[in-house]
């Protein structure tokens, strides 16, 4: 459900560039996968990461996987729209494909963390920033610990980061509470004016 909506720029990119952010474990990837499945008109940027693939992840679908040297080259060449480090790995959004699709008038969705959303706010202030919130802190903890894909120290770092991210919710234009993936997808698509 939509919890809040502040004022946002109404420039041409406001209807085309949407940033989805929120704490780890809130369901961003699940929402993105559902939008990818049901609305192929929305172009979903695939981030670059230095993180190793998780079971079931495919190069070019969930992420572009690169080593540290490859990531360094992308940063040095100005090829990333934004990038950040999280839980010991780096993540970034390739600049060229986003700019190409925006130039063609296609709706673009970025799934990025708080640091990246702040960078986008600085470089593309007309973008709409959407914060995906958990129904409760307890539910977020359950989701993160229930994954079973990360060691306890990584989970603890993610929980520490989640506290910081939840405190930054007011920096976003809109907050959606993830009580239902289908409802969040419908609300996000409405915000993006995608039918």
Automatic annotation (TrEMBL):
It catalyses: GMP + ATP = GDP + ADP. ATP binds at residues 22-29. Keywords: ATP-binding, Cytoplasm, Kinase, Nucleotide-binding, Transferase. GO terms for cellular component: cytosol. Its EC number is 2.7.4.8. Essential for recycling GMP and indirectly, cGMP. This is Guanylate kinase. The lineage of its organism: Bacteria, Bacillati, Actinomycetota, Actinomycetes, Streptosporangiales.
């Amino acid at each position: 459900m939509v919890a809040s909506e502040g004022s946002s720029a109404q420039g041409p990119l406001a209807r085309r560039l949407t940033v989805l952010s929120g704490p780890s474990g809130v369901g961003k990837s699940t929402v993105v996968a559902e939008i990818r499945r049901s609305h192929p008109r929305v172009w979903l940027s695939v981030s670059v990461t230095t993180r190793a693939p998780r079971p079931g992840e495919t190069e070019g679908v969930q992420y572009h996987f690169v080593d540290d040297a490859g990531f360094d080259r992308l940063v040095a060449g100005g090829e990333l729209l934004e990038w950040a480090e999280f839980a010991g790995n780096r993540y970034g959004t390739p600049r060229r494909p986003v700019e190409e699709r925006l130039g063609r008038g296609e709706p673009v969705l970025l799934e990025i963390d708080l640091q990246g959303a702040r960078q986008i706010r600085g470089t593309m202030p007309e973008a709409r920033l959407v914060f995906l919130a958990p129904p409760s802190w307890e539910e977020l903890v359950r989701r993160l610990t229930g994954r079973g894909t990360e060691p306890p120290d990584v989970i603890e770092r993610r929980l520490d980061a989640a506290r910081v991210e939840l405190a930054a919710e007011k920096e976003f234009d809109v907050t959606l509470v993830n009580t239902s993936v289908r409802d969040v997808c419908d609300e996000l698509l409405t915000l993006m004016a995608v039918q």
